[in-house]
Amino acid sequence: MGLFILRRLGLMLLTALCLTFIVFFLTNLYPNLEKLAKTQGNFRMSEEAVESWLGDRGYTDNMFVKYGRWLGVAPGWVTEKEDGTVTGQCFAENALEDSRDRYCGVLQGDWGRSLVFKDDVASLISTRLAATGKLMGFVLLVMVPMALIVGVLAGMREGSGLDRSLSTFSITTTATPEYVSGVIFVAIFASSAFGLKWFKGSATQAIENATFENFFLPVITIALYGMGYIARMTRASMTEVMTAQYIRTARLKGVSFPNIVLKHALRNALIAPFTVIMLQIPWLLNGVVIVETLFNYKGFGWLLVQAASNNDIQLLLAVSVVSVVVVLITQLISDIGYVYLNPRIRIS
Amino acid sequence: MEPLTWTGPLGAYLDTITLALAAAFFVAVLAMIALNAAGATGRVVTNPDGTLSTSGSPYDLLASAVKWIGVALIGLVLAYFVVGVFGGPDAGGIVGALSQRMTPVWIALLLTFAISIGFKRKLGLYGKLFDSTVGMIGFALVMFWVFTGVFGALDMIITHDPLSQVSGMKNKVPGTPLSGAEEGDYQWYLLGGDNLARDVFSRVVKGAWVVVQIAPLATLFAFMVGITLGLPAGFYAGKLDTVLSFIANLILAFPVILLFYLLVTPEIVATGLPNYMAAVLFIFPLIFVGVLLNARYYTQPSIRTPLLLVVLGFLGWIYLSLISASGTKINILPASLDLFDIPGGILVVFVSVVFVNAPTVFRIVRGLALDIKTRDYVAAAQTRGEGPWYIMLWEILPNARGPLIVDFCLRIGYTTILLGTLGFFGLGLPPESPDWGTTINDGRRLLSIYPHAALVPALALLTLVLGLNLLADGLREESLKD
Questions:
Q1: Are residues B262 and A282, on separate chains, in Cβ contact within 8 Å?
Q2: Which of the listed residues A265, B326, B331, B454 has the most CB atoms within 10 Å of its CB?
Q3: Is the minimum CB–CB distance between B29 and chain A shorter than 8 Å?
Q4: B271 in contact with A, Cβ within 8 Å
Q5: Interface size, chain A vs chain B, as Cβ–Cβ contacts under 8 Å
Q6: What distance in Å separates the CA atoms of residue B29 and residue B6, rounded to the nearest whole number?
Q7: Which CATH number fits domain B202-479: 3.40.50.980, 1.20.1090.10, 1.10.3660.10, 1.10.3720.10?
C-alpha cells in the first residue's frame, strides 16, 4: 500500500511538471509575449522596443531556462543596464549586492505577481480558493445526499415506475450543462419576466455574506449537473447488489424490504459511487468556472477566466497547478478509498 | 398587425383543459412515486397461465390513471401542432406559427419513422431501436434537430435573416409584429428579438446547423484517433500502453476550460499551433482507413494496391485541402487544387474539441481491447496466422462495436455541451455566429429582464443533448438484449 501511494505520488509529480510546462510553453509563445509587452509597456512600442523590453525581463531566454526559473531551480534573471542600474527577478531595483537572492520560484515559495490584479499570486489564489471552497462545500452537501437517495430509490426496484421516473430525472440533469440550467433557473426564479423573483440572479455578495437567496441558485446549478451521473452509477450498483444471492436469501428468510435495503444492500452498493463522487470533483471545477462567470461570484473559476483572457502568465500557471493538483489528489483518494472500502481487494 | 399570443384563438378553448390535465398528471405521478417508495405494490394474483401479476391496489389505479392522462395530454399537445400546421398563426398563435414553419421537419420525421418501423426487422441494431420507447423518443428528438438544421441551412424554415437587424425590434417579446414590415416579409418575430434586434427563432434554427455539422464530425474524428491509438495500446500492452496512457491521462487532467482558453486565443492561433494540431489529428482517419483496408486485402495484392491507391489518394486530397488554407501557417496546396477552406474559427474549435475527446475514447477502446484480446476467436485468428492489425481491426473492433456505438451517441451530446461551453465563453466562433452557446452568452447579460433571447437556445441545447442521452440509453438496452 505504501509503495502504491509512493508510486502514485511520483506519477502525480511528473504529470504536474508536464502540464505546467505545457501551460508555460503556450503562455510564453512569442505573440503572447508581444501582447504582454504592449499591454505592460505601451501600445505603440516598436518591434525593437518590444524586443528589448522582453530581453530586459528575461523573456527571450530559452524556454527551459525560463521554466527552471519559475520552478526555482535556475537562477533568476539579472540585467545590468548601461547606466549601471541593476534589475533582477528576485530583488528590488538597486538592492545591495549581498542581499540579492539568486533563486525565486515555486520551490522557494514565490509564486510571482499577477500583472492584471497587481497583487501577489499566492494571496490572490488563497482568497479566491477559499471562496470557491465555500461554494464547492455547499455543492457537495447538496449533491451527494441527493444523488445517493435518487440512485438507491431508483435501484432498489429495477423497472418500477419509481425507477423510470427517477432515471428520467437523472438523465435530464446529465443532459443539462450548467450554462443551460443556470440560464433557465435565473430566467424562471430571478427575472422580472416570470415575476417570481424568489432568488437573486447574482451571487457577488455571497462571498462575504451567503444567504439562501443569493447562494441557492449557483449551488443547485452545479449540484444538478453533477448529480445525475452519480445517481445513475448508484442505481447501477444498487440493482446489481439487489440481484445478489445473499439478498435473495434475506428475502426468503422473511426480512422486511426496508431492512434489506438499509441494512444489507446499501453498504455494498455505496462502494462504486464513492469512486465516482471523487472522480466527479474535477468535473465540478469546470462547472464552477461556468457558474462563477454566470453568477458573477468572484472565486477561483472567475480568477481562471480573468487570468486566461488576459494572458496573466504567473497567475495562469498558479491556477493550473492548483487545478491539476486537485484532479490528481482526487484520483489518488478515489483509488485508495476503493481499495480501503472493498474488503475483497483490501484483504488480498 | 396584432401581437401574437402563445396559443392564439385555439388556446381560448384548449388552454384550461391542457393545464388541468398537466396538473392532474403531475399530481398522479408524484402520488405514484410516493406509494412506490412506501412499498405499496399491490396484491399478487396468480394468473391461469401460471404467471404472477398485481392488481386491485390503489397503486394500479394510479398507474392506469397516469397512463390515460398522459395519453390525453400528448393528444392535446399534438392538437396544437396539427392545428398550427394547417391554421398557422391565425389559428394557433405562436405555437401554431412555429409548427407551420416546421412543416418540412414534421414530414421528414414522419417519413423516417414510417419507413424505419415498417422495415425494422431488416435493419439490425437500428431497427431494434424502434422496440424501445425511450430510444424512439431520443431518436425523435435528435432527428428533429438534425432535420431542423438541414432544412434551416436550405433556408426553408427561417423567417428572417439571422444576421439582419430590424430597428424597433430590440429585446421584443415573442410574437411581436415586425415593425415596418413590407409585403412579403414574415409579419412577426415569433420568438422575439435579441439585444441586437435579430430574430431569435431564425438564429436558433441556423445555430442547429452549426451544431449538427460540427458535433458528430468532431466526435467521429475523436473516435478515429482514439481507436487508432487505443487498439494497439490494449493489444500490445507493455511500454507502448504506458506511454500512451500517460499522455491520455495528462490531457484528461487538464481543466477543459483552461485548455480551450490556451488553444483558442488569437495570439495562439497566430502562431499556427491549431493548424499543426489539425495536421496531426486529421491524419488519423487516413491511417485508420489505410491500415483497415491493407489488413483486409493483404493477401490479395491485385485488389489491395489499386484500392489503397484510390482511397488514400482521395482521402489524402481531402486531408490536404482540409489543413491547408491560405493565410495560415500551413499552405501547401495550390489554390486551384484546394477543395475548400474551413473558416479559421471553426477549425480551431473543431481541433480543440477533438483533442479533448480523443483521450476518453482512447481509454474506452483500450479497456475493450484488453478484455477482448483474451477471447478464443482472437486466439483462433492468431493460430491461423493473421497479422496483429487484422486481429485488431477485423476481430476485436467489430466485437467492441456495441459499447462504442452507445458511447458515440453519448459523446456527441458531450461534444455539443463542449461547443456550447466554448460559445458561452466567447471562444473560437465569431461573435455574430448563431450557434447556441454564443447566443446564450449574448442573451445572459439581460437575462433578468428579457430572458427569451437566452432561454430559447438553452432549451434547444437541452432537448438535443437529452435526445442523444435517451438514444444512447435505448441503444444500450436493445444491444444488451441479444
A1: no
A2: B454
A3: yes
A4: yes
A5: 162
A6: 27
A7: 1.10.3720.10
